[in-house]
Design a protein that fits this description.
By secondary structure, this protein is an alpha/beta fold. It is 59% helix and 9% strand. The chain has a 6-stranded mixed sheet with strand order 2-1-3-6-4-5.
Length: 556
C-alpha cells in the first residue's frame, strides 16, 4: 500500500495547484499581498531616496487599505520566486507566486499528515488525507495571498505537534515548538491568533503537558524574534515606525471597526462556517462527536478539538465574521474526524452497525469530492475583472493598428475587486528589454465619485472596464462583455437554444462564452434540459469613439 500513501501525499500539492490553474485570478481580500509581491519583484528595495522611490512606485502608498499589513509574506514570495520567474518569463509570475504559497501550505499539510501517522497510525493518516482532499475551501484558498493563508502554514505546523507523544521530554519539546509557531503567526500575520495561542497554552497547562517554566521563555524568544523580523521590514516599506498586527488588533478589537464590513450572529462559525469548511457532511454531525464520545479515540482527539473550539467560541464574540478567519482549525478537526472514520472502518466486519456506518463514511468522502468539484467550477466563474483584463489585452494586441503605441484603460471598482492586479496589467521586461512593437498599457483605478462625474476625466481613456456602462461619460461602444456566476438555473425543453454567443447582445468573452457553448451542446443531447451555472453580465469592455481618428485597437 506504499504506492497509495505516496499518491495521497502527492495529491495534496497537485490538487492545490489544480485549483490555482482553474481559478488563477484574485479578489480584493488578496490584493495587498499580491500587489506588494509584484512591486518588490519589479521595483526592488531601494537603498537611496527610499521614500521618494517607494511612494512613487509602490501600490500600497495609493491604496493602503483599512489597516497596514505586513510585507514579510510578499518579501518571502518575491525572493523565492524571482529566479523561477527569470527562467520562465514574467507572464507567469502571478501563477508562480501563488503556486509557491500553495506549496508552502501543502508542505505544512504533509507535515501534519506525517504526524498523524506517527501518533495515530497509517490508516488514520490515510483517512485524514482523504477527508482533507475533499475540503474545497482549504485546497482552494491554500494558494491565495490572504494574510490568513500566510499564517495557515504556521498554525498547521503548530497543531502537528499536539498529537500524542508518550515520551515526556519529546512532548514538552513539541509543545514548545507549537507555542513558538503560534507566537510567530500571531505577531507577524494575524493578531487574533493570540486567542488560539492562549487556548493551546491553557490546555497544555491543564493537562500537565507543559509548565510555565517551558512556556514563558519560549514565548519571549519567539515573540522577540517576530518583532525583530516584522518591525524593521514593515517600517522600511511603510516608511514609518510600524508593527502592523498591533495596528490590526487596535482597529479590530479596540475600535471594533471590523463590524463596518458586516455583522454575523454569534453562532455563525459553529452553525455555518465550520460545516462549510470541513465540507464532508458527516464530519461535524457524526465523526467528530463520535471521536469525542468513543473511549478508544477520546484522549487522542481532545488536544486537537478543545483548543480549536475554544478559539472559535471566544473569537465568536467579534461581531464581524468570515469563514477564512478560522481556516486554521480545519486540519485538527479533520484529523479528529479521521480518528473516528478509521475506528469505524476497521470494525466494519464486526457488526451490521459498523458496516453501515463504514459505507456511509466512504460515501460521504465521494460526496465531498463531488461538492468540491462543483464549488471549484462555480468559484472559477467569480473573477470577471481578471477575465476582462486578460481578454482586453488579447483583443487590443491581436488586432491593433500598426501605429498604435499606447493604450490607456480605466478599471472600475468591481474589476479591481474581481481579478485586476498589477501582474495582469504590466508585463515586466528586465533591463528595459521591451519589444519594439509592444503596446504600452497605462491603467487608472480612480474611485473618487466626484472625479468620475467629470466629463473631462473620461477623455483621456481609450478603453474602460465598467460594471455599469451608463456611468461612463462620453461616446463609447461596447466591444464585449464578461459574465459572472449568478446562481444555478434549470432550463426546460420549451425554451429555445441560446444560439450564437453574439445573438441579441454584445459579444460575450471568457468563461461565459464557454458556459454558453457547453449549455447548448448539453441541451442538444438532452432534448432541451439543462441544469448548471446561470451567468449574467458583470464587466463591460468599452472603447472610446473618436471622430476623425484612426486610433482604434480593434479593426472594424
Amino acid at each position: 500500500m506504499a504506492a497509495f500513501d505516496i499518491f495521497l501525499s502527492l495529491a495534496i500539492p497537485i490538487l492545490i495547484l489544480t485549483h490555482l490553474l482553474v481559478a488563477p485570478y484574485t479578489k480584493v481580500e488578496e490584493s495587498f499581498n499580491i500587489q506588494a509581491t509584484h512591486d518588490i519583484l519589479v521595483y526592488g528595495t531601494p537603498t537611496t531616496d527610499i521614500y521618494q522611490r517607494l511612494s512613487s512606485r509602490y501600490d500600497h502608498f495609493d491604496f493602503p487599505g483599512a489597516v497596514p499589513r505586513t510585507f514579510i509574506g510578499p518579501v518571502i514570495l518575491a525572493g523565492i520566486s524571482q529566479p523561477i520567474i527569470a527562467l520562465v518569463g514574467f507572464q507567469y509570475a502571478q501563477l508562480i507566486v501563488r503556486g509557491l504559497l500553495g506549496l508552502f501550505n501543502a508542505g505544512a499539510l504533509l507535515v501534519f499528515k506525517a504526524n498523524v501517522e506517527r501518533a495515530f497510525g497509517r490508516p488514520t493518516a490515510r483517512w485524514y488525507a482523504l477527508l482533507q482532499l475533499g475540503q474545497f475551501h482549504i485546497i482552494f484558498y491554500a494558494s491565495r495571498t490572504l494574510p490568513n493563508m500566510f499564517a495557515f502554514s504556521l498554525t498547521t505546523l503548530a497543531f502537528s505537534q499536539l498529537m500524542g507523544e508518550p515520551d515526556e521530554k519529546k512532548r514538552v519539546w513539541r509543545y514548545r515548538l507549537a507555542i513558538g509557531n503560534l507566537t510567530m503567526a500571531t505577531a507577524v500575520f494575524r493578531s487574533e491568533l493570540a486567542i488560539l495561542l492562549v487556548t493551546t497554552t491553557l490546555y497544555g497547562l491543564v493537562r500537565s503537558h507543559i509548565s510555565l517554566r517551558g512556556i514563558i521563555p519560549t514565548f519571549i524568544v519567539f515573540f522577540l524574534m517576530s518583532l525583530w523580523l516584522t518591525v524593521p521590514v514593515d517600517s522600511y516599506f511603510w516608511q514609518k515606525p510600524l508593527w502592523p498586527e498591533l495596528w490590526g488588533f487596535y482597529y479590530n478589537a479596540i475600535l471594533g471597526s471590523s463590524s463596518e464590513w458586516g455583522v454575523s450572529p454569534w453562532h455563525y462559525y459553529f452553525t455555518s462556517a465550520i460545516p462549510k469548511i470541513l465540507t464532508n457532511p458527516l464530519s461535524t454531525v457524526f465523526l467528530i462527536p463520535y471521536a469525542l464520545w468513543n473511549e478508544g479515540t477520546r484522549n487522542k482527539a481532545l488536544p486537537l478539538v478543545i483548543p480549536s473550539l475554544l478559539f472559535v467560541a471566544i473569537y465568536s464574540l467579534q461581531p464581524h465574521k468570515e469563514a477564512r478567519f478560522i481556516f486554521y482549525i480545519a486540519p485538527p478537526l479533520t484529523a479528529t474526524a479521521a480518528l473516528a472514520a478509521n475506528y469505524i472502518f476497521t470494525r466494519r466486519s464486526k457488526s451490521a452497525t459498523f458496516l453501515l456506518a463504514s459505507v456511509a463514511v466512504v460515501g460521504s468522502v465521494l460526496v465531498s469530492f463531488s461538492i468540491s468539484a462543483a464549488m471549484l467550477l462555480i468559484s472559477s466563474l467569480n473573477y470577471p475583472g481578471g477575465e476582462a483584463l486578460s481578454e482586453l489585452r488579447k483583443l487590443v494586441t491581436s488586432s491593433s493598428s500598426p501605429d498604435l503605441q499606447t493604450v490607456t484603460v480605466h478599471t472600475d471598482v468591481l474589476s479591481c475587486m474581481t481579478g485586476v492586479t498589477l501582474f495582469g496589467q504590466h508585463p515586466y521586461y528586465p533591463n528595459d528589454l521591451r519589444p519594439a512593437n509592444e503596446i504600452t498599457f497605462n491603467y487608472d483605478k480612480t474611485e473618487d465619485e466626484n472625479t468620475l462625474r467629470s466629463p473631462p476625466f473620461w477623455e483621456k481613456f481609450d478603453y474602460v472596464l465598467a460594471e455599469d456602462p451608463t456611468k461612463v461619460i462620453g461616446s463609447w461602444e461596447t466591444v464585449g462583455v464578461v459574465e459572472g456566476f449568478a446562481g444555478v438555473e434549470l432550463i426546460r425543453p420549451n425554451k429555445p437554444l441560446g444560439g450564437d454567443i453574439e445573438t441579441g447582445q454584445d459579444k460575450v468573452f471568457g468563461r461565459g462564452a464557454l458556459i454558453r457553448r457547453v449549455r447548448d451542446t448539453v441541451r442538444a443531447l438532452t432534448g432541451g434540459w439543462w441544469v448548471g451555472p446561470r451567468m449574467e453580465p458583470k464587466i463591460h469592455m468599452l472603447r472610446k469613439m473618436r471622430e476623425g481618428k484612426a486610433r482604434r485597437a480593434v479593426k472594424e
